[in-house]
């Protein structure tokens, strides 16, 4: 029971600290009652996936690490003090400002841009110094988009979303549901919005065939996936008990 309280408290902390930059909560956001828990159904998934793309274009974010390679140019070799034919600048971390630093060019704003957009931008700027630069750009490390998987799982931790979308099914496989202690009828996704109240989605994963639906429910950055322990009758009741001061009150059954 002590473990359950700690887990719930951690979930509550994630909800609150995800509110805004600086980890401060605007109490006006939480005036009134939270919306009821939303059941994940085929109709809901269909509605949410209206604009979903199977291969979405990844947009670079803060703390992502980019790998940039400029092929076969001796002019850039002098800049990098590198005599090799294939020039490479590793570990270009996207700073909190949304910029990276690249030799000759200086600081470049890359946040919110795709890899192809960054490649074109670098090509344009390097063209002032070298003729017809051949550049490749990739994300070597993903850090900017994360989801938190917790509760009755064997591997509770924070996972990153890469250029491949992460579904609720992916999350449960990554976390590894502990079937001995989990209530698979109560799998929750807590989704925070910038100005609106958080939404809590509930999924019933009791049967194997329903997990196919979880594979179509795609997670968003900062989502919290919580697998409830057996014996907890209502997530809404838990939320209303642990967060009364924040006015995060959910309707009880």
Characterization of this structure:
The chain is of the alpha+beta class and 253 residues long. It folds into 2 domains: 2-56 and 145-246, Roll (Outer membrane lipoprotein wza fold like), CATH 3.10.560; 65-141, wza like domain (wza like fold, 2-Layer Sandwich). Helices cover 25% and strands 25% of the residues. The strands form 3 sheets. Strands 1-10-9-11-7-8 form a 6-stranded mixed sheet, with helices on both faces. It has a 3-stranded antiparallel sheet with strand order 3-2-6, with helices on one face. A hairpin with a 7-residue loop joins strand 9 (182-191) and strand 10 (199-203). It is elongated, with a radius of gyration of 22 Å. Belongs to the BexD/CtrA/VexA family. Keywords: Cell outer membrane, Ion transport, Lipoprotein, Membrane, Palmitate, Polysaccharide transport, Porin, Signal, Sugar transport, Transmembrane, Transmembrane beta strand, Transport. It is a multi-pass membrane protein. Residues 54-139 form the Polysaccharide export protein N-terminal domain.
Main attributes of the structure:
253 residues, alpha+beta, Outer membrane lipoprotein wza fold like, wza like fold, 2 domains, 3-stranded antiparallel beta sheet, 25% strand, elongated, membrane, Poly_export_N, Poly_export, sugar transport, ion transport
């Amino acid at each position: 029971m002590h473990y359950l309280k700690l887990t719930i408290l951690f979930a509550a902390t994630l909800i609150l600290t995800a509110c805004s930059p600086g980890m401060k909560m605007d109490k006006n956001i939480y005036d009134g009652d939270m919306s009821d828990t939303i059941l994940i159904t085929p109709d809901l998934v269909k509605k949410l996936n209206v604009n979903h793309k199977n291969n979405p274009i990844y947009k670079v974010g803060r703390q992502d690490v980019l790998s940039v390679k400029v092929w076969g140019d001796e002019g850039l070799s002098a800049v990098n003090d590198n005599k090799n034919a294939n020039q490479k600048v590793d570990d270009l971390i996207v700073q909190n400002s949304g910029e990276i630093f690249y030799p000759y060019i200086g600081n470049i704003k890359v946040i919110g841009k795709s890899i192809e957009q960054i490649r074109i931008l670098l090509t344009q700027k390097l063209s002032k110094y070298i003729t017809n630069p051949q550049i490749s750009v990739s994300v070597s490390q993903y850090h900017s988009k994360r989801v938190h998987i917790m509760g009755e799982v064997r591997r509770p931790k924070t996972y990153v979303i890469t250029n491949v979308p992460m579904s609720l099914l992916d999350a449960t496989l990554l976390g590894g549901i502990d079937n001995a202690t989990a209530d698979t009828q109560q799998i929750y996704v807590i989704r925070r919005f910038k100005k609106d109240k958080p939404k809590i989605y509930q999924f019933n994963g009791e049967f194997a065939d329903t997990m196919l639906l979880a594979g179509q429910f795609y997670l968003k950055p900062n989502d919290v996936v919580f697998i409830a322990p057996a014996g907890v009758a209502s997530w809404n009741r838990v939320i209303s008990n642990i967060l009364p001061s924040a006015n995060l009150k959910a309707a009880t059954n």
